[in-house]
Amino acid sequence: MRNSAKSLNFKDDRRVVKEVYTSGGSLDHTLDMYYNENWQILEVRKDGNADPLKQYVWHAYYIDAPAIRYYDPDTDGSSIATQYFTHDANMNVTALIDDTGAVIERYDYTAYGQVTVLNPDFTDDADGVSDYEQNVLFAGYQYDAESGMHHVRHRNHHPALGRWIQRDPLEYVDGQSVYEYVRSYPTFALDPLGTTVKACTSWRERVQLKFPRLKLWIASIEFSGDFLAEGTACAVCCDDGRIVSQFSTSIRGRGSFRIGSRQDKGTVITTPWGPMRVKPYARGMYGKTGGYRWGGCDDATKKGDVCTQIRGSAGAEGCYEIGIARACIRGEVFYNQLSCESGRVSNCVGGRVMVRGCVGIGWFERCKEWVVVDLGKC
């Protein structure tokens, strides 16, 4: 018969002693489990041994996301294995990896957390029990093999029943049942405290834009860019019973554009002084950066700022011909514009005009140097 845990005692503020007994009623072993202030397990010692059986390091991005485990099955301090965790989007631990990068054990779950231990090749483990005493599993919760339940800080979760064993200490804040687990959405929501439903979905999308060259009557337009949008949306149940949405996103990226003459030689336009060949153009960069965050139990206001920046230049050049002489002009305007949703705006405009004259017949032509009139820098 399977061993059973006859007692689970809170000895200190964050030390729990578990006594495991055989089916005959005799003590098999004890486990001293040490936790930090967030009730993340840090260390497990067996039978009071000075050398830990297991030690844990946790990710910073979620309270129940284990990163690394140091495992010493003989508790002799000389055969410590470094092992790594992988998890899915619902924080279920999916595999245990050794320090060579090889998968040594996998885990599969039902919707409410009943675990199936798998071999590295995805076949069922022979006895269905972890060969590495790995018990951080469903949603990153700590699994107690003797009771078949998950310890989730304020309450115990029963994966076979799909519900909490204890009443919600906050009573009916999550709905009409004080035992319902995450409002019956176990594949979408989490409850790391046993009191507050946290339902989140995340996205990350990279968009690369490359428009074909668009030819119009007098111009051609080209645009390309690379933009990344990512964020998280959560439904949070607050202590006072309110259900609020918490949403954050960030956008960053930049693109480039060029608008030029449809014909390489420009376009002939009519002026009061006669025909003039003009080649207009515009070119520059377009960027968007920043992020949003709004919602939450204590703060329902939007935070963050999104800014759009456009910088570049626009100009034209052309020549007016009088017999064997030509008068040419080239003008360009530089700009740098920043506008943010917070109201922060900055604009900068500058430019220059260049003029020169040429005299010649056919391929023989002599031109003066460009005369530059600076209109300011940006």
Describe what this molecule looks like in 3D.
By secondary structure, the protein is mainly beta. The chain has 2 domains: 4-174, no CATH class; 202-374, no CATH class. It is 0% helix and 58% strand.
Task: State the gist of this model.
By secondary structure, this protein is an all-beta fold.
Helix percent reads: under 10%
Uncertain ranges: none
The protein's oligomeric status is single chain
Total domain modules: 2
Order of SSEs:
EEEEEEEEEEEEEEEEEEEEEEEEEE
What's the helix count? Answer: 0
Shape: elongated
Number of strands: 26
Structural class: mainly beta
Mean pLDDT: 81
Spell out the key features of this protein.
12-stranded antiparallel β-sheet; mainly beta; 378 residues; 2 domains; single chain; 10-stranded antiparallel β-sheet; 26 strands
Task: Annotate the secondary structure layout.
Layout: E1 4-12, E2 15-21, E3 27-35, E4 41-46, E5 54-58, E6 66-71, E7 81-87, E8 93-97, E9 103-109, E10 115-118, E11 142-144, E12 149-152, E13 155-158, E14 163-164, E15 189-190, E16 198-210, E17 214-215, E18 219-237, E19 243-261, E20 267-271, E21 274-295, E22 306-322, E23 325-340, E24 345-361, E25 364-367, E26 371-374
